[in-house]
């Protein structure tokens, strides 16, 4: 009779299970947290804020706007109006002086073909024009930032923020604006 191969392995009655305690080492994680914290604190201290520099001239007592003496042909006035509209005219508005003609008020917007094109044309006519920016009561902060950006984009050297006078309010009312 043939013999069949039999297994010599014995199955133990009790399976051996060993319980290992899980141990998490937090040292590398704490070190990484301190490195990240140090990096972000140093980065925040070294990073320079990106702001648009605005320098305002010192006003003379005899000077109305604080921009110095400027010629009538060099001056251009931009009035920031309601609904993101811009009103502008060339020269000064002085109704008390009969030698100064009443300016023609024009209206535009903040598009590339609006105020930017007009500023570039004015700069080609007059190399260094003096731009007077006058915010009306209905103008928004966004309008002010946008016009200062346009001054920076078109590389205007001389511009000033001046208050809206009574003569300019009358000019707006005469042209049907508020």
TrEMBL record:
| Protein name per UniProt | Biopolymer transporter ExbD
Q: Keywords, A to Z? A: Cell membrane, Membrane, Protein transport, Transmembrane, Transmembrane helix, Transport
Tell me its family: Belongs to the ExbD/TolR family.
InterPro entries, per the entry = ExbD
| Membrane-topology descriptor | Single-pass membrane protein; Single-pass type II membrane protein
Q: Where in the cell is it found?
A: Cell membrane
- Asked whether the UniProt record includes Amino-acid biosynthesis among its keywords, one would answer no
Q: Which organism is it from?
A: Hymenobacter bucti
Task: Determine if Transport is one of this entry's keywords.
Answer: yes
Q: What is the lineage of its organism?
A: Bacteria, Pseudomonadati, Bacteroidota, Cytophagia, Cytophagales
């Amino acid at each position: 009779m043939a013999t069949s191969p039999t297994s010599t392995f014995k199955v133990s009655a009790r399976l051996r299970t060993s319980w290992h305690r899980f141990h998490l080492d937090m040292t590398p994680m704490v070190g990484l947290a301190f490195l990240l914290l140090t990096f972000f604190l140093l980065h925040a201290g070294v990073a320079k804020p990106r702001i648009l520099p605005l320098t305002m001239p010192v006003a003379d007592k005899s000077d109305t706007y604080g921009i110095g003496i400027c010629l009538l042909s060099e001056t251009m006035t931009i009035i920031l109006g309601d609904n993101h509209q811009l009103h502008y005219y060339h020269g000064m508005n002085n109704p008390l002086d009969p030698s100064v003609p009443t300016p023609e008020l024009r209206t535009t917007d903040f598009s590339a073909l609006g105020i930017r094109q007009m500023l570039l044309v004015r700069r080609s006519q007059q190399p260094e024009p003096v731009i007077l920016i006058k915010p009306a009561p209905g103008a928004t902060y966004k309008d002010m930032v946008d016009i200062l950006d346009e001054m920076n984009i078109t590389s205007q050297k001389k511009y000033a923020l001046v208050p809206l006078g009574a003569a300019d309010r009358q000019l707006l009312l005469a042209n049907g604006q508020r």
